[in-house]
Amino acid sequence: MKIQKKICEKVALFASFALLALPFFSCATKPAVEIAKEFPIAIVSISSNTTVPWYEEDAKKDEGDINEDGLINSMLNKSINAKNPEISSNMDRINYAEEKLLSMLLTKGNFQLLDKETVLNSSIYKGVKGGMLDFMSASCIPEGYKKLSPDSRKIAKMMMDKLGAKSLMYVTFQFEKEKSHSQVYARTTMAVRILNNKGKMVVRKDYVALSAEGVQMYGNSFDKQSLVDLFPNSIENAINRFLFSLSLEGTEEFKIENAESTPIKLVRPSTQGEKNSEEAAVEDESEASAEKINMARRMLSRGMSAEEVADITELPLEKVKELESEKATE
């Protein structure tokens, strides 16, 4: 009876996932947006916060302005904590994030991007002014960029017309530290907004990733420089999550889905012969596991770590490492 109850619970769970996934697989619903149709993309805004605050799970964050420091607080922090590596390395973080974002979009995502210098040196881009809120918030911005918001569709349309772009990309990084089991991890949230030339926001999502390793805490103390050194890994993990979210299962095309996680495909029972509920439940579970394994293989092939793949797919880490070993011997 316990086994039958457990199987029924799993059937109910997969049925719930199927209902959530239905809008993405039904022919009567709106299909996923093909990212390739939005090429070429012009990246017009990249920015980040200036410090490394503690992550607060229940903290409310405003759209497009994630936990920004106030301008006055930032100036005080710089004068009081000038030797704090969390603050003194802020430009290093955003410059690294920009470099990895551009290179990974091109090499891993096969994105068609307008040349950075072409965008930043254009008269239309130089003529765009940031609002008062952008001025008052303390932000780190790579040289040549401006902190812009996708809210002004009119200005965005003018930039696309002049640049010859089909869409604009706005990226905001939020760098934080997160404690877990006496360890401190580097946490990166990458907020991505992509606006196409029809004024539609085709991507409006935040991608969160922790560093694969943490720094040991002793009471309330930890090595801040060691924590700062973990951010490159966290940044790459966040970018990888963004790229993976654009991949549609079973294809190599990049598409955009408006789901918070990859929907599990509904496994329909065979029409040939009859199966009892226990057999059907076992088959459903087996098919779902196969989907996760296939998904894990694709993620590993794109350079994601075994730990991150296990976290996303919810497969056991040992199983993911087995798949990683298989890939290495191919």
Structural description of this entry:
This protein has 330 residues and is α+β, with helices and mostly antiparallel strands. It has 13 helices and 9 strands. The chain has helices at 2-25, 71-80, 85-88, 90-107, 116-120, 123-127, 132-136, 153-163, 224-228, 231-245, 277-301, 306-313, 317-329, and strands spanning 33-34, 41-48, 69-70, 137-138, 167-180, 183-196, 201-210, 215-216, 255-256. The strands form 3 sheets. Strands 2, 5, 6, 7 and 8 form a 5-stranded mixed sheet that branches. Strands 1-9 form a two-stranded antiparallel sheet. A hairpin with a 4-residue loop joins strand 6 (183-196) and strand 7 (201-210). Helix 4 (90-107) runs parallel beside helix 10. The two termini are 44 Å apart. Residues 1-32, 62-72 and 248-285 have low confidence and may be disordered.
